[in-house]
């Protein structure tokens, strides 16, 4: 080597000059050798899952791969002294035991609430240990009408550190194709934006205080139920070790959903949703409770609370999607 590699792509190119080695890497990552070639030449970007596995495929170069990948994802971060794809603080085994116990011993709405509360609390403690400022939100697909497509998402639960609300609470904010969550759910792959102020990015709608964000899909058997959205007050906050932990927490949250709440990608066709200020007239937790109670009365209590709430959310979604466009200033 005439000089040290400047990027992970250059390192990958050097290590896979031999066709047999490029074939080995492709098989390890579940892609084709041609795809590896396109990564090297900068013609395509690997998925986050594949990018963070590269150090594992080259154990002798794992530290260097981690540093070069971090330099691309988080350009202003100091060099790492340990491999970044093996977090200094792994997701605790005790937490995983709690989650599996809750999944095995509880059922219905109580199981969902328990799993989600445990996971959101642990995720916040690990991902923002110094309480710099973070919000973690569970985003769910709104059930479509029979035979229809998923048209919107909804924030259902969240937790945060200041300046966001600190306790686990129910949420009600509709999202669509205009959001990072919508981008992730619509494609079934993680979305990472390290600087939401940077010009030239995809036009994701930015929330208050939010400077960087990660959205990770909630998946089961290739289907999607929503995503886990993690927002930080700092730009360039998320390292590869954060992404590894976020994937674990997203998988844990997926246990809180029923099979019927997951949808094939071809059944997801998200619309754009009005901003929060325009939603508030039509949606609130109080409105949701009123609608849910009304629907149960109208159906003579043949609907469970969960079923009635799903129908109430469909009503709210329909009203939002028929709002006229905002007038131009």
Give the proportion of residues in helices.
40-55%
Shape: elongated
Terminal CA distance: 59 Å
Kindly provide the radius of gyration, computed on alpha-carbon positions and rounded to a whole number of angstroms.
21 Å
- What is the highest CATH level, the class of the largest domain? Alpha Beta
Strand fraction band?
5-15%
Q: How is the main sheet built?
A: 6 strands, antiparallel
**Structure annotation, total helices:** 12
CATH architecture of the largest domain: 2-Layer Sandwich
* Secondary-structure element series: HHHHHHHEEEHEEEHHHH
What is the fold named in CATH at topology level of the largest domain? Beta-Lactamase
Largest sheet strand order: 3-2-1-6-5-4
Would you kindly provide a written description of the structure presented here, covering whatever features stand out?
With 329 residues, this protein is of the alpha+beta class. The protein has three domains: 66 residues; 175 residues, Beta-Lactamase, CATH 3.30.450; 44 residues. It is built from twelve helices and six strands. It has a six-stranded antiparallel sheet with strand order 3-2-1-6-5-4, with helices on both faces. Helix 4 packs antiparallel against helix 5, helix 6 packs antiparallel against helix 7 and helix 11 packs across helix 12. The longest helix is centred in the middle third of the chain and has 20 residues. It is elongated, with a radius of gyration of 21 Å.
């Amino acid at each position: 080597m005439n000089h040290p590699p400047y990027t992970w792509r250059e390192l990958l190119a050097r290590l896979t000059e031999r066709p047999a080695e490029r074939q080995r890497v492709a098989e390890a990552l579940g892609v084709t050798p041609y795809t590896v070639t396109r990564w090297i030449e900068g013609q395509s970007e690997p998925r986050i899952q594949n990018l963070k596995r590269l150090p594992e495929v080259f154990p002798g170069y794992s530290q260097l791969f981690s540093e070069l990948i971090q330099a691309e994802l988080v350009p202003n971060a100091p060099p790492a002294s340990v491999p970044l794809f093996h977090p200094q603080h792994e997701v605790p085994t005790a937490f995983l035991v709690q989650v599996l116990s809750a999944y095995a011993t509880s059922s219905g709405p109580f199981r969902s609430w328990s799993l989600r509360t445990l996971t959101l609390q642990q995720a916040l403690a690990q991902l923002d240990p110094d309480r710099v400022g973070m919000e973690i939100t569970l985003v769910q697909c709104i059930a479509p009408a029979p035979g229809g497509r998923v048209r919107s998402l909804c924030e259902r639960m969240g937790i945060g550190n200041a300046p966001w609300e600190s306790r686990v609470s129910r949420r009600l904010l509709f999202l669509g194709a205009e959001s990072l969550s919508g981008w992730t759910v619509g494609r079934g792959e993680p979305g990472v934006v390290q600087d939401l102020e940077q010009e030239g990015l995809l036009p994701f709608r930015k929330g208050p205080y939010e400077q960087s964000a990660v959205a990770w899909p909630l998946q089961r058997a290739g289907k999607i139920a929503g995503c886990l959205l993690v927002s930080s007050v700092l730009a360039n906050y998320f390292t590869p070790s954060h992404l590894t932990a976020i994937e674990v927490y997203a998988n844990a949250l997926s246990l809180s959903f029923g099979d019927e709440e997951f949808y094939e990608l071809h059944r997801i066709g998200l619309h754009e949703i009005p901003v929060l200020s325009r939603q508030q007239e039509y949606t609130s937790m109080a409105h949701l409770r009123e609608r849910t109670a009304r629907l149960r009365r109208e159906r003579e209590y043949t609907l469970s609370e969960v079923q009635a709430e799903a129908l109430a959310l469909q009503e709210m979604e329909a009203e939002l999607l028929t709002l006229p466009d905002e007038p131009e200033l």
